[in-house]
Amino acid sequence: MTVVAMDLADMRMSGGVGLGTWAMGGSGWRFSWGPADDTDSIATVYRAVERGIDWIDTAAIYGFGHAEEILGKALAALPAADRPHVFTKTGMMWEEGDRGGGPYRIMTPVGVRRAVEDSLRRLRTERIDLYGVHWPPLGDAVGLAGVSGDPTPLEEYWQVMADLRRAGKVGAIGLSNHDIVQLDAAERVAHVDAVSFPLSLINRSATAELAWARENGSAAIAFSPMHSGLLSGTFSRRRAIGLPRDDWRRHEPAFTTRLAANLAVTGTLTALAEQRGVSTAAMAVAWTLAWPGVSGAVVGARTPEHVDGWAGADALRLTPAELTEIASALADTGAGQGPIKP
Fold it and tell me: CA angle, corner 57, sides to 45 and 254, nearest 5?
């Protein structure tokens, strides 16, 4: 089944949670989560499939192609009927042989056409179900051979994405981390099948993008519902201090200067989870899915056990009383930003 047959705007019909693979990219690049064991990563993909998760999100930049390669290896061993939908993203480039440089936010037509072929090869597939633009380009291509330093206009790179959809290289196209002005500009060129944005108890700032998706018939895919592990129920101040030196979270305010407030909110979430007999991670994901119009949530995992912690969160419905208690915790602690209740 391809993503064309899958109703992206109503992903919850087939499972509102998808597996995220950022951490599977491993170490040695700027936005690493630290070392990753490839055997664990492949086992995690298989556990997700076993648990009924039928879409997996990745990106070319994760480990400079490594996460796509690992996902491709895992999927190649599965029967065709069992393979989940594959979502990946472009627009974050790197210089081969220079893992310390970049990534560069670039969307030149030549670069995008090359990138999709590279992703198809790494993923070992002839078609990508959903192909997204990871970030708006900045043109920060200093040191990247053969690329102009001027950012490509949105209308130009979105037309290239539409051409890929028309040619059948990809089933659907989407925009991640684009604001509503950019989304409007893209929609005038070609329909935006999916909009991706961060949404968690700690980051509640994408309400305009969510509303835009509802108004324009686009799937609304939230990512980081556990705020990069902070809302998993397993995080602590000690763990924050002990993060690997190349883990990007060591320098993120949510894990440093704002950690106390965020952990206080997590404590409320954990107490509610215990009352329901579910994991804190599942409660965090369910809160994100409670927002009207959210089609699905990308949830990261490094091990099969991580998947077990949140698989099935799309079937968990938070009660009005639970949503009110969570909102009170957000108000009392001042954690995060944005509306405190779906």
Answer: 100
- DSSP assignment of 212-273 equals HHHHHT-EEEEE-TTTTTTTSS---HHHHHTS-TTBGGGG-GGGTTTHHHHHHHHHHHHHHH
Contact between 297 and 288 under an 8 Å Cβ cutoff? The reply is: yes
- Residue 18, phi then psi, degrees to nearest 5: -125, 155
Residue 31's pLDDT is 87
Q: Are 192 and 130 in contact (CB under 8 A)?
A: no
CB-neighbour burial class of residue 242 (10 A; exposed 0-12, middle 13-18, buried 19+)? exposed
Task: Give the CATH number of domain 13-333.
Answer: 3.20.20.100
Mean pLDDT for each 10-residue chunk of the chain (342 residues)?
43 72 92 92 98 96 96 96 95 78 85 96 97 87 52 95 97 97 98 97 95 96 94 88 86 89 95 96 97 95 96 95 97 94 92
Residue 115 sits at φ, ψ, to 5 deg, of -65, -40
Cα dist from 75 to 122, 137, 254, whole Å = 11, 30, 34
User: Distance (Å, rounded) from C-alpha 316 to C-alpha 65?
Assistant: 34
pLDDT score of 12: 47
Which amino acid, one-letter code, is at 339? Answer: P
State both tokens at 232.
Answer: 């998993």
Query: Which alpha helices (DSSP H) does the chain contain, by range?
Result: 38-50, 66-76, 109-123, 154-167, 180-189, 207-216, 237-241, 259-276, 280-289, 304-310, 320-333
- The rounded distance, in Å, linking the Cα atoms of 172 and 130 is 5
Residue 174 C-alpha from the chain's centroid: 12
Task: Quickly tell me which residue has 């648990």 as its tokens.
Answer: 51
User: 225: which 2 tokens?
Assistant: 């519902």
Structure tokens at 283: 């409660």
**Cα–chain-centroid distance for residue 283?**
18
Give the pTM.
0.91
CA atoms within 13 A on the CB side of 292: 7
